[in-house]
Design goal:
Radius of gyration: 54 Å
Number of helices: 16
Helix content: 40-55%
Number of domains: 5
Length: 474
């Protein structure tokens, strides 16, 4: 027998031939063993189910071992202790009663994971007892109290974060000077600050729920709130339209306070613009509220924006008269009136020519800041009429023709006094009428009664007013 030593500094070619032969033979035997059918049959296959199988104590478990293993597992689970197990040729039959449908599914899943089980016949019934249902809903009060007690520090942290964010949002939303630097309109300041407060409240709620690990529930709540908000939006569509109209009117104001306007045939002086309606004081001294959605879409006539206002009236002369001379005479009288503006100057033209008259239209301008429009128009009509009559022009009057039959004529003749009858005493001449003071009627100064009422109402009212002298006017 060769008993030499191997030199550690020699390479593979320096290994004795006998040792090399034994190594090669061992490698060949190992390859044959691994490639044999028996070895391939005993080689474990890669598991297809990611869930690990529950092994029974012996490698080849029989029905009794499978039943014992499943029963021991169910005995350790409180909700499956009443489940019965029967095994026959690897087929497991589950019976008994459980408190919920989730326990039925869980028992079947556990039985399928036991090695040696072919299939499972699930015959478990759900027990419909009141105490089982209430326990599944409310659980054990003592365990719940223990969980709440252990989670008190976490609840405290989430509550602190919630309060800090809400307080910060409330303080920033209440900082009016900051918002007025960004939004000059007071209505937008109220709107944006209120929306910011709500957004910060939602941010605080999301942060608190995230700390508690209840983000899934928060998503459900927000989704439900979105659906409810969409439904509410459709139901209060008119209210939202009115609210948006209020925003637009406050940003681009079509009128100022105390201006004389006509909105959809409603005439009056503007008192205030609120978040819901526009308040007018009619010329009769009554309050009139018009929804802002109507005001935003309405045709608005503003008499105050241009202080000069034109009036017009019609007078008729006889068809035989000269209409041009009549117009000139009327214009001369109108120009002599002190309240009629000379620029623009009064005008007149022939409106229509009828069967027995010619209708002339006269127009003049007044300054509403100094002159009452209605009184000026009335006095101009009276002065022009007097001028035409004094100039010899005949103002046409309606002519009626009365026709009598013969019987009525005889009756009228019979009513005449007989000859020799006493004559009626002569009637006394009418007394001269006392002169009438027309100074008050001729006063055409501007009437500021409604303006004073509007100013008093605006000063005494506590209702929010969106009209702002610094806002742009369309």
């Amino acid at each position: 027998m060769y008993s030499g030593r191997v030199n550690s500094r020699s390479n593979l070619t320096g290994v004795p031939a006998v040792l090399t032969g034994w190594l090669f033979a061992g490698l060949m035997v190992l390859c044959l063993v691994l490639m044999s059918p028996a070895a391939l049959a005993q080689a474990p296959e890669p598991p297809t189910d990611p869930t690990p199988a529950i092994q029974t104590p012996p490698p080849q478990a029989g029905d009794a071992e499978i039943k014992t293993r499943i029963s021991e597992i169910f005995a350790e689970i409180a909700t499956l202790r009443r489940v019965t197990v029967e095994v026959n040729h690897g087929v497991v039959t589950l019976g008994g009663e459980v408190a919920s449908s989730a326990a039925v599914t869980r028992a079947e899943e556990i039985a399928l994971r036991v090695n040696g089980v072919v299939t499972v016949e699930n015959q478990i019934e759900r027990r419909l007892a009141v105490e089982d249902s209430s326990t599944s809903i409310f659980g054990d009060p003592s365990s719940r109290l223990q969980k709440v007690y252990r989670a008190l520090p976490l609840y405290g942290v989430s509550l602190g974060v919630f309060l800090v964010i809400v307080l910060f949002g409330h303080l920033l939303a209440s900082w009016r000077s900051f918002w007025r630097l960004i939004l000059p309109n007071p209505f937008l300041v109220e709107l944006v600050s209120g929306a910011f407060r709500i957004v910060m409240l939602l941010v605080a709620l999301i942060a608190a729920m995230n700390i508690l690990g209840a983000t899934a529930m928060m998503g459900t709540i927000l989704g439900g709130a979105g659906v409810i908000g969409l439904a509410i939006g459709f139901s209060v569509r008119d209210t939202l339209e009115n609210y948006i109209s209020s925003i637009m009117l406050s940003v681009r104001q079509p009128f100022r306070a105390n201006e004389h306007v006509v909105i959809d045939q409603h005439e009056g002086k503007v008192m205030r613009l609120t978040s819901r309606s526009t308040v007018l004081m009619t010329l009769d001294g009554n309050h009139l509220r018009i929804p802002n959605s109507t005001v935003f879409k309405a045709v608005i006539l503003n008499y105050t924006r241009n202080p000069e206002r034109r009036f017009q009236f019609d007078l008729g002369v006889d068809a035989a008269d000269d209409p041009v001379a009549a117009m000139q005479l009327g214009l001369d009288r109108m120009k002599a009136l002190p309240f009629i503006l000379q620029t623009p100057e009064p005008e007149a033209f022939i409106q229509t020519v009828g069967d027995s008259n010619i209708v002339l239209r006269f127009m003049g301008w007044v300054d509403q800041r100094e002159t009452n429009f209605g009184k000026a128009r009335g006095l101009a009509i009276a002065a022009t009429k007097d001028a035409l009559e004094e100039g010899g022009f005949t103002l046409p009057e309606p002519i009626y023709r009365v026709r009598f039959d013969s019987g009525v004529e005889d009756a009228l003749k019979s009513t005449k006094p007989a000859p020799g009858a006493a004559a009626r005493p002569p009637q006394a001449p009418p007394r001269p009428k006392a002169p009438v003071d027309t100074s008050e009627a001729a006063d055409v100064a501007a009437d500021n009664t409604i303006d004073e009422k509007v100013a008093a109402e605006r000063a005494s009212s506590k209702e929010a007013d969106l009209l702002d002298e610094e806002s742009p006017v369309e």
